[in-house]
Amino acid sequence: MPTNRRKFIQQAALMGGALLTSKSLFASNIVPVDNKEEKLVILHTNDVHSRLEPFPMDESKSAGLGGVAARADLIRRIRSVEENVLLLDAGDIFQGTPYFNFYKGEPEIKAMSMMQYDASTLGNHDFDGGMENFATQQLHATFPFINCNYDFTGTPLEGKTIPYKIIQKGKIKVGILGVGVELHGLVPDKLYGNTKYLDPIQKANETAALLQKKRCDIIICLSHLGDKYTDNKVSDEVLAQSCYDIDLIIGGHTHRLFEKPRVYTNLKGNETIVNQVGWAGMYLGRLDYNFSVGKNKKLEHSHKVIVRGKINE
User: Fold this and answer.
1) Distance, first Cα to last Cα, the chain
2) For 102-161, what is each residue's pLDDT tens digit?
3) Is residue 241 domain-shared with residue 267, that is, in the same domain?
4) Which residues of the chain have pLDDT under 50?
5) Does residue 48 contact residue 307 with C-beta atoms inside 8 Å?
6) Fewer CB within 10 Å: N-end or C-end of the chain?
7) Is 269 left (phi over 0), alpha (psi -120 to 50) or beta?
8) Which domain holds residue 9?
9) Same domain, 118 and 142
């Protein structure tokens, strides 16, 4: 073989090897980009007040509404078509029907566990059977009770609640915290004992900042403060405008049925959304969030779903 031709083949082989090596190195540094949006469906209730059965079929506007059987069927149907579903409650599970008078909350907690609630916070009426009773009923719960502004040290509820919970739904990391209303004046002193009430705005901001550091994609506050007041009482509206990192407040206590979620500007200049769906389990709140590349979130759709024997979605 002529010298020139041999030299050409050798050089070509070296160049080809170098090219293949550089391509493999380049390929190894490529990070695949997932352009698929991720959807999170948040379902929520508040102030169900031991309403296990629907309202009686009379002439009232609430006739036939509510009941755990219809709610459970509705939740099951939504879960059958949606991949990432989060089910939350904003407190006042107890008190309001003879079920609580006779069974002290056991069937309410068992029903929520069967529906696979992901988390709940505490309402003032959840203390109506006393702290010992609430601690006992928690034995039937498969979900956590979340609150960061009640200090239960030295009470029967010590160690029975958590300040926050992180839940993974698909690729979405959800941070959940909870806050409760001032118990003094709402609950007899003997029923909440040595529970210390801490500033809900300060504790919510501290806990949300921790969840932010843990790189949660959305931070949700389960609140039993009440949506808004005419005086300077702390409310969801005040919290929404005084927070930094909370994206969504699911509220209770004031039994308001929002036609649509309220949107506030928080201290970072971002949106904090507040929603509440009445009382007695007559409605199920639904919020559909989309998470795009970089986990940018957007509330795409929201509505209140009526709960009754014939399911309407």
Assistant:
1) 81
2) 999 999 999 999 999 999 999 999 999 999 999 999 999 999 999 999 999 999 999 999
3) yes
4) 5, 7-9, 12-33, 310-313
5) no
6) N
7) left
8) 1-30
9) yes
